[in-house]
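--- STAGE predict ---
source: upstream dedup step, 1 unique chain passed
mode: sequence only
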Amino acid sequence: MAVRLTKPAKDEILFVALGGCGEIGMNLYAYGHNNQWLIVDCGVAFGDLTTPGMDVLVADIGPLLDGGGKIVGLAITHAHEDHIGAIPHLIEDLDCPIYATPFAASMIERKVDSYGGRDVELHRVPQGESVDIGGFNVEFIPVTHSIPEACALSITTPAGRMIHTGDWKIDEDPQLGRMIDSDRLAALGREGVLALVCDSTNALEDGHSGSEGEVYPGLLDLVEKAQGRVAVTCFATNVARVTTVARVAQATGRRLALVGRSLHRLYEVSKENGYLQSFPDVVGEDAIGRLPREEVLMLVTGTQGEPRAALSKLARNEHHDAFLDAGDTVIYSSREIPGNEVDINRVRNQLAAMGVIVLSDGEEGLNVHVTGHPKRDELMQMYQWTQPSVAVAVHGEARHQLANAKLALACQVGQALAPADGDVIRLRAGQEAEVVQQLDLDVLGLDGSRLIPLESEVVRLRKRMMHNGAINVAVAVNARGNLVADPVMSSNGVFETPEEDEIEDEAADWAWDAVDRMSRADRQSDDAIESVVFKALRKFCKNNVGKRPLVTVSVLRV
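--- STAGE serialize ---
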């Protein structure tokens, strides 16, 4: 029986990560106090070969829905997909208001509309302001990140104050939006912070993350030297980088084209919220082919090798309007997210085979990207500002979290934890934090329009088909149980070439023989026929091709 989430008491704050610990992405955290829960962020992760048919993964919110108090609201730190992408899929079940900055709120509205979801109760909270959400007072503190209006959240209750950093860095020249409000963070530290829940993404990396202002010279130099068209690929929601590329286009006399739907959506939301006001006019994708090659600078989506993104289509020469030729240049102004290396390299190899020049940050000393997450020097500064009693390392794989927790202890933080998804941490003033529950969580995959657990039978069967193939066989028997025709068989991913038709015919003979050896009484049972044919075909395939495919048997009574 699954562990039921405990109800938080008046003298404590409970913290649980339902997603975002042990992985990059799928951020969804919950804070509990006095029988109420405040959720922070509601993001997605992205599927891979282990999640066939499901590109989007979301956290399991079942424990919050099944008990443990009332959900009073959802507070959003910023508008990246791994922090808001699951809202259209989960908000109806959560059934609570959403609180976000104006920029993030605009992104959420478009996302919900695109999925045809119901209207949501959405409250816009400007950076620097606070709002009461049930028994929680939540202050939206400006931090620097690669998207406008990123915030750390100060979450205050009678039991203490928590600071949830969200994604952040220290950048003195961010190019867009406000700098981190270090004065406010330090003031809260002097007042007292029970726990700091902190981004761990770059906790293994020494030094400083660098400034967005440092990217411009490197990009400018490459574009000035390039012959033919230039395509720059970056994360679609990196508005600061979009601004930098626009400046490069102006400086080099090239016309800027946005290639990819998510870039157009970002452009609209940015303009709507007062950003990109000096942005140059962009040309439509359909105009790219009519312009001289040396006048084109494309900003394209697909930095992580996503098959349906613009860069992948360009690499396959499948884009409807835009295209690349030999001698053109693609610049990766991004980092590789762990787990995406195969997809990224596939696209890069396709581009290289076309004769396209491919350049990436860090290669041959190129400096065309800075991370949006804090490295160790910045993490130490955050601990000095906030002076928490407890550090809770989140947002990263286990090795990142452990490095962050170890660093916190070195910064004289009294206690540091690196929880896994499902660990329920109890925090009380003057007491050590402790894990009081471990929830049994699943991960849900978006399968068409429905969410299904990754541990479900559907996914298990898909994995078996993917690795071993599938065989379908129909057996026709009469009322007396006698076969009236040869079994009809079809296979997918089992027999490699048409020349192996003989093997498939032999497999059908095994099915016939298996039924023929049954007693007349056993042949009266469809289940019995299905069982013997299934076993016969699995054994045949194991002996002849070394695999155990998924076998489906249909018995037809005629």
